[in-house]
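REQUEST ID: PR-0412
SUBMITTED BY: lab tech R.K.
PRIORITY: routine
TASK: structure prediction, single protein chain
INPUT:
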Amino acid sequence: MYISKINIENFKSFKGSFKLFLDRGINIVVGENEAGKSTIIEAIHLTLSGLLNGKYLNNELTQYIFNYEVVTEYLDNLNKGINSMPPHILIEIFIEGEDISEFEGNGNSEKTNSSGISLKIAFDEKYKKEYEDLIKIGGIKSLPIEYYNILWSSFARDENITIRTIPIKSALIDSASNKFQNGSDVYISRIIKEFLESNEIVEISQSHRKMRDYFMEDDSIKKINDKIKEATKISDKKVEISVELSSKNAWENSLMTYLDDIPFHYIGKGEQCIIKTKLALSHKKAKEANIILLEEPENHLSHAKLNQLISDIKKHSNDKQILISTHSSFVSNKLGLEHLILLNNKKTIRLNNLSADTKLFFEKLSGYDTLRMILCKKAILVEGDSDELVVQRAFMDANNGLLPIEKGIDVISVGTSFLRFLEVAEKLEKNAIVVTDNDGDVNALKLKYKKYLEANKKHTIKICFDDVIDSGNLKIRTKEFNYNTLEPKILKENGISVMNKIFGKTFNDIDEMHKHMKSNKTDCALKIFDSKDNIKFPQYILDAIVD
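STATUS: complete
OUTPUT:
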């Protein structure tokens, strides 16, 4: 049993209808800040648990969970005398799997015969007269939440379902947030409770009741209660302090989880995240098909701990559905880019059908900044640090001192993995530019990039290189010098006197300058980047920075 699709209407950042399809195993949602990643996770958890910000929705209902634009339009219409119905929130979760026939029907926004549940927050018609009277006197300045109703129902139109009868349970794990601090222990205690058999729960409850008896028989407590009785009359009834036992499951509220004698909510956030995730992954009631919702697992975790967490997630992804939001390339690469969902302008793009080699490459060499390319407006891909610095300087000279990133363009060092990144860029139709050396063999370069050149040219991908092959007599030891990399091309454009001034050198022999620039690539690139002098750049660099 798993969630195949979710429909969100007018909840927080989503105006109108937004649909997201989910896979059975791992789903990785990435996007810029405010793209709606957290809202998706909140919507799923709210519908499955009734909890918002760790508290029950009935106690947390506010107009601020409604889409701001929708609320503003509604209030503007009322001010203009246009009679509008108050906006609603609808969250629908479509379920696939076995033993869900009782949730099957066409009671969903698509009117399709599907299995699922819906949560609707909408105006309650029984308040229609009061609402109309309020409109007449112009008394509505904000969303009339007091006239709203919260309704859970199945697609079979059963309005009597409860959180307990919903077949899929959710576990929300957010290591970055402090808002669940008080609820963190409740969360972990609930998971531990679900590991217990019925007879074990009865035993705990009885033991908890015995605690009251021990508490009340303690001499110091007896003394305090006697003192209360002798004090000025508080009430006609007996007043005394005791242990809370008013509800059947009172023990749950007082259950405290300890790690090495330290209360759970006092341990580090990273350790909390790992323990919660492991408990959720190892939940013995696998048939309940829990969905695990992970908010930015990279927060508060060292590289080693994050690697451990990802390993645990991958191990259990066959029998659990997992939805992760992240800003970490490491997390995305390690869990598999094929599971990635890019959220952009409330639309989704998937990285389906990546080649097996590319998926394995990024998984095994997970330090590559794939998300930098995926999330930027345009990517300029270069081989190394020195190329990155030179391209940025050329861009700044052409754009009044603005760095590329200030215009949404990211210059990214990718080593020799250009084709891997281009495959990802092509799938996403991402604007990507490759800046590369010709290394003295233009034909080999054209063969390497034949998929993106001439007749095969893609409108989103551009390959920039110098098509002139330079040569000379310089040898370093016994190896012939390569005149067709970035450094000799810059020296060729500017001449030795300009380079001497930039580097603070006094070379008279151009070969000595070649040797210096080859041996000190990054240092030379830094001096070029910081130089106040005018610098000429090779044409293929200039081609790369043109909009």
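NOTES: The chain has 21 helices and 22 strands.
REVIEWED BY: pending
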